User: Which sequence fits this backbone?
């Protein structure tokens, strides 16, 4: 893997109005999956929005493949970093294909756009949905189409905000599998997750975020420990080991 | 890999509908020009347009031509402005008057009529000033601390300012004695007695809408899904939003200024087009403009000819009388297919 950092954040501070919400430094290499874990309101989404250039930096600088974020035009930035959130609802009858095609916007109109959009839809296994109006799709189908849109955007860096949390186990499994594949092909992934099991299984590194500061950062085996998780969430946890790969599987100790 | 045609609302379909809408506009314009209260042989009317031998005939020809052009222009601008507000506010019920500029313009015009200073371009200028002040107040009310705008807040602010100004209009109406009927007729919208002055006044203010709407057609697709989604893909959201809002408001205001408050065109036409050719603005905008123009020219024809007594109906009455039942029918019949309607 290339050793250049696809993302480097140096002493970045982010917030809203006067209020500073998070302060952190962070680096991501190609092919690396880093998960952000923390309670609601810890600043996870704020970090993603800041790194995607949607929030002004209060301090520090973010480098995307060595290029400072502040010097990129919005389109240049959108060719380097994509943010995937829960797909929005819309009242208008865009077809799934048109939704994916929109992901080509930062690259400007080009004759290859339609083919790329089709390839992206095929990749997520949603080619059969291409002609359907987006508003008529189920939640799972929408999220797959939305993932195809992010793929069509062709950025080396993916920021994911709970990409599958509201979906049934089969669809989430499929989405995570596809994302892991993209990561293996050399994209860097920073993913906000509430599901600790997926965090453990997917990540090269896990970051625990508490009240805007990194509480711990490292491989899942080192970070997903009951005492750290208890400190993070102020709730008790048990720890199992995955029978196949020995990865830690944190479980909430509730209803016992 | 299969061809993408059929995977989205295809361009072939769009061109068919573009031809249809163009033909409809052509037919409406011809009817509007050749058919009127005074029956004139078509050939004589055409000749009178270029030659100035018979003054009466020449005047009739010129008036009909300008009136047809103005109705088509206003119809196109209303439909475009409606499509843009529906995208920017992400609300299918949005229309050119949602932000209150129409009521502002109407209030300005009512003031002009009330004080008896409605000659020439004074009334349209009063209307434009009223609309501009209204927009300022609405923007001031709905602006957040960071300078951002939320669609719901904008709609609410528009509603509040609108109701206040409506009350103002009612107050002026009850204070006015002789001019009440003039105010009422004007409020309902009409092209009666409008000439080249109004037509040029209209285009001076309305052209940015036509230009910017087409220029930002891809950005409008992205904005109708969400601001964050558009920002994420590299759209300079604030600039695009400000330019489009201003030009659409200006066009809506100048529509009201030259022809009064004509409802339903701006609401219905974009929905009709979405039913046939989908939501992409590349298709939606040109079709909406053509269809809006054709519908308003037809409505104006009806307004001129329907009453047997020879008097004119306000064209706003026609658009509402036709528009509301049609919309209701559409909603009822196509409910399952148009699930994107609330």
Assistant:
């Amino acid at each position: 893997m290339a050793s250049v950092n696809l993302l480097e954040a140096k002493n970045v501070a982010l917030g809203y109005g006067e209020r500073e919400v998070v302060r952190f430094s962070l680096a991501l290499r190609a092919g690396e999956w880093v998960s952000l874990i923390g309670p609601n309101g810890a600043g996870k989404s704020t970090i993603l929005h800041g790194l995607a250039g949607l929030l002004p930096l209060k301090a520090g600088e973010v480098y995307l493949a060595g290029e400072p974020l502040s010097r990129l035009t919005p389109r240049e930035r959108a060719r380097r970093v994509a943010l995937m959130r829960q797909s929005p609802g819309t009242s208008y009858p865009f077809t799934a294909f048109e939704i994916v095609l929109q992901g080509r916007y930062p690259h400007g109109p080009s004759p290859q756009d339609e083919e790329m959009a089709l390839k992206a839809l095929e990749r997520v296994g949603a080619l059969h949905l291409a002609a359907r109006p987006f508003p008529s799709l189920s939640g799972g189908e929408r999220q797959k189409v939305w993932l195809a849109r992010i793929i069509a955007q062709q950025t080396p860096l993916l920021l994911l905000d709970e990409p599958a949390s509201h979906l049934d186990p089969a669809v989430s499994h499929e989405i995570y599998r596809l994302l892991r594949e993209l990561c293996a092909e050399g994209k860097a992934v920073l993913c906000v997750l509430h599901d600790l099991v997926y965090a453990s299984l997917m990540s090269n590194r896990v970051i625990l975020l508490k009240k805007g500061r990194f509480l711990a950062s490292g491989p899942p085996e080192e970070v997903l420990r009951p005492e750290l998780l208890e400190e993070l969430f102020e709730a008790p946890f048990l720890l199992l080991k995955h029978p196949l790969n020995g990865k830690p599987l944190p479980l909430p100790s509730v209803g016992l | 890999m299969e061809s993408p045609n059929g995977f989205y609302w295809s361009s072939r379909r769009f061109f068919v509908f573009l031809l249809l809408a163009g033909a409809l506009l052509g037919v409406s314009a011809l009817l509007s020009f050749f058919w009127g209260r005074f029956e004139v042989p078509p050939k004589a009317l055409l000749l009178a347009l270029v030659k100035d031998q018979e003054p009466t005939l020449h005047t009739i020809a010129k008036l009909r031509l300008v009136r047809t052009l103005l109705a088509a222009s206003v119809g196109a601008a209303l439909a475009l402005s409606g499509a843009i507000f529906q995208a920017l506010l992400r609300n299918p019920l949005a229309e050119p008057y949602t932000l209150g500029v129409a009521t502002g313009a109407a209030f300005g015009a009512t003031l002009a009529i009330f004080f008896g200073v409605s000659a020439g371009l004074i009334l349209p200028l009063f209307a434009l000033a009223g609309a501009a002040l209204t927009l300022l107040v609405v923007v001031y009310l709905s602006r957040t601390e960071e300078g951002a705008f939320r669609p719901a807040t904008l709609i609410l602010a528009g509603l509040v300012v609108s109701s206040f100004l409506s009350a103002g209009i009612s107050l002026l109406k009850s204070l006015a004695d002789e001019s009440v009927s003039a105010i009422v007729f004007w409020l309902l919208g009409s092209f009666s007695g409008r000439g080249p002055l109004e037509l040029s006044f209209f285009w001076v203010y309305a052209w940015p809408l036509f230009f910017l709407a087409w220029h930002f057609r891809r950005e409008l697709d992205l904005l109708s899904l969400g601001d964050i989604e558009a920002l994420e893909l590299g759209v300079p959201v604030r600039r695009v939003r400000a330019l489009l809002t201003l030009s659409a408001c200006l066009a809506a205001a100048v529509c009201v200024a030259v022809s009064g408050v004509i409802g339903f065109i701006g609401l219905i036409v974009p929905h009709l087009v979405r039913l046939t050719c989908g939501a992409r603005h590349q298709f939606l905008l040109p079709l909406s403009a053509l269809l809006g123009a054709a519908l308003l020219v037809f409505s104006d024809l009806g307004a001129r000819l329907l009453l047997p007594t020879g008097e004119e109906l306000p064209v706003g009455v026609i658009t509402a009388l036709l528009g509301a039942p049609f919309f209701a029918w559409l909603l009822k019949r196509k409910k399952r297919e148009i699930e994107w309607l609330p």
